[in-house]
């Protein structure tokens, strides 16, 4: 899962980032409206966590852009403005959820997971493809009855492959999905090759029917 946190309070943004990354989520942070647009031009996100009181514009102003450009991206407003009018306005504009500040990070992540399930997984916590089953709530993946021993990144990669089954996925798309902003410091895709190689071996050893197939010069296809 890949999340954009639009929040101008650096301490809160850092706390959210630390918590979500421990849960295996890839996080990018923007502290203003214009910085969030720059992030959205570069990457596509599963969920945007949106503060309303930004230094250059209101968070409300970002919602129409998100709805038009990224209709499948979930929007969760998190704001100290907890009046009914703001909640109704945000939801009517297209936000999926509204969480008043201050909030518990455990509740925030629970709402994010629920939103991700509704938006990307048709409401279910389980994603299945032939004899592979991934439970996004427990962060476990199985081939038949065998639980796979996967790292956090390998689990994210497997879910990315399953959700995008049969599609051609470039190395750059994988790198951006798994590492987000950190990709700016990378000078090669060697780490992508290594993660794909490790995941491919674990799937094969467990008897997975779907396979990771290399499309030379272009990327990978799963299924």
List keywords for this structure.
Arc Repressor Mutant, subunit A; WalR-like; 223 residues; alpha/beta; 2 domains; 4-stranded antiparallel sheet; phosphorelay response regulator activity; elongated; Rossmann fold; CheY-like_superfamily; 8 helices; 5-stranded parallel sheet
List the helices and strands and how they pair.
Layout: E1 2-6, H1 10-22, E2 26-30, H2 33-42, E3 47-50, H3 62-69, E4 74-79, H4 84-93, E5 97-100, H5 105-120, E6 126-129, E7 132-135, E8 140-143, E9 146-147, H6 152-163, E10 168-169, H7 171-179, H8 190-206, E11 212-215, E12 219-222
Parallel strand pairs: 1-2, 1-3, 3-4, 4-5
Antiparallel strand pairs: 6-7, 7-8, 8-9, 10-12, 11-12
Helix pairs in contact: 6-8
Identify the strand order in the major beta sheet.
2-1-3-4-5
Rg, Cα atoms, Å: 18 Å
Number of strands: 12
Residue stretches low in confidence (pLDDT < 50, at least 5 long) are: none
Please give a structural write-up.
- This protein is of the alpha/beta class.
- It folds into two domains: 2-121, Rossmann fold (3-Layer(aba) Sandwich); 126-222, Arc Repressor Mutant, subunit A (Orthogonal Bundle).
- Helix content is 43%, strand content 22%.
- The chain contains eight helices and twelve strands.
- The chain has a five-stranded parallel beta sheet with strand order 2-1-3-4-5, with helices on both faces. Strands 6-7-8-9 form a four-stranded antiparallel beta sheet, covered by helices on one side. Strands 10-12-11 form a three-stranded antiparallel beta sheet.
- Helix 6 crosses helix 8.
- The longest helix has 17 residues, at 190-206.
């Amino acid at each position: 899962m890949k999340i954009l946190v639009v929040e101008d309070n650096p301490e809160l943004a850092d706390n959210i980032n630390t918590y979500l990354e421990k849960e295996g989520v890839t996080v990018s942070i923007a502290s203003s409206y214009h910085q969030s647009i720059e992030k959205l031009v570069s990457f596509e996100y599963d969920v945007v966590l949106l503060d309303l009181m930004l230094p250059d514009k209101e968070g409300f102003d970002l919602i129409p852009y998100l709805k038009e450009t990224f209709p499948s991206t979930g929007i969760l407003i998190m704001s100290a403005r907890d009046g009914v009018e703001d909640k109704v306005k945000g939801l009517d504009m297209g936000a999926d959820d509204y969480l008043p500040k201050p909030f518990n990070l455990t509740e925030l992540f629970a709402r994010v997971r629920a939103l991700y399930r509704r938006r990307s997984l048709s409401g279910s916590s389980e994603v299945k493809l032939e004899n592979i089953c991934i439970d996004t709530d427990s962060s476990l993946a199985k081939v038949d009855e065998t639980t796979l021993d996967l790292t956090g990144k390998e689990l994210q990669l497997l879910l990315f492959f399953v959700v995008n089954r049969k599609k051609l996925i470039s190395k750059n798309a994988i790198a951006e999905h798994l590492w987000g902003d950190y990709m700016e410091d990378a000078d090669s895709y060697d780490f992508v090759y290594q993660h794909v190689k490790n995941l491919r071996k674990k799937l094969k050893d467990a008897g997975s029917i779907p396979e990771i197939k290399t499309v030379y010069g272009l990327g990978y296809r799963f299924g």
